[in-house]
Specification:
The chain is mostly helical. Helix content is 71%, strand content 0%. The chain is built from 9 helices and no strands.
Length: 228
């Protein structure tokens, strides 16, 4: 099945007038994706092997400030949106929703004790792998409606434009930087953080393919001149 191109956020909002039910479906998919994304972050924190890279960073900030983990997540998201905007990456509706709701839902899930902390090593490993799979699924779910990427992806694109480096190099550099800062601040780092970083790309790629999300521009095939 061919990959489906994402509509622009502006085109999506035209659906509100042209096809309200389809627009409602896209909004519902976006919101569900953000809730599940938050659940994945909590799973990585509760696996007791070390949180995901960004969760280590946010947890470190919450350890050193009066902020909750969710509030730290929102604060970092706000800073990244403004930095990205300064470099020409305008936030979309999905960017703002991600910035606000992932932190909010993270705090709600933590407060509700919905996810207990894993104790035995089989339970720890299972929860870590569940976090990887869940985050990959959630990423595809909230990107699929086409309302715009999250603040961290926008920041990555801004740094890529600024440095002219490959996206993979920029992504790795940002992840490594936030992990180091998170560790220095006392964030929840462990072997699980490294495993998560190694597996998350494959998880996201799998679910992007499953959802038929096109991430690369298609290059038209060259037109061959017909012979006389």
């Amino acid at each position: 099945m061919p990959s489906q191109k994402l509509l622009s956020p502006v085109a999506n909002f035209h659906l509100l007038r042209d096809d309200p039910l389809q627009f409602l479906g896209k909004i519902s998919m976006l919101m569900a994706g953000l809730v599940i994304f938050s659940l994945a972050m909590v799973l990585s924190l509760k696996c007791n092997l070390g949180a995901s890279s960004w969760a280590v960073f946010h947890d470190g900030i919450s350890q050193q400030t009066p902020l909750t983990l969710g509030q730290a997540t929102i604060g970092v998201g706000v800073a990244m949106v403004f930095v990205s905007w300064a470099f020409g990456i305008k936030p979309g509706f999905g960017t703002v929703a991600n910035m606000l709701l992932v932190g909010l839902w993270t705090d709600v899930i933590l407060w509700s004790n919905l996810v207990p902390e894993a104790q035995s090593y089989p339970a720890r490993i299972a929860m870590l792998l569940a976090a990887v799979v869940t985050l990959g699924f959630a990423s595809a779910l909230y990107i699929k409606p086409g309302f715009g990427a999250g603040p961290r992806d926008s920041f990555m694109l801004a740094i890529t434009r600024l440095t002219n480096l490959r996206v993979s190099v920029v992504r790795w550099s940002i992840e490594a930087t936030v992990i180091v800062i998170g560790i220095a601040l006392g964030g929840d780092f462990g072997i699980g953080t490294i495993v998560f970083s190694m597996l998350i790309g494959a998880s996201v790629g799998f679910f992007f393919n499953l959802f038929n999300i096109q991430t690369r521009r298609t290059v038209p095939a060259p037109v061959r001149a017909s012979g006389d």
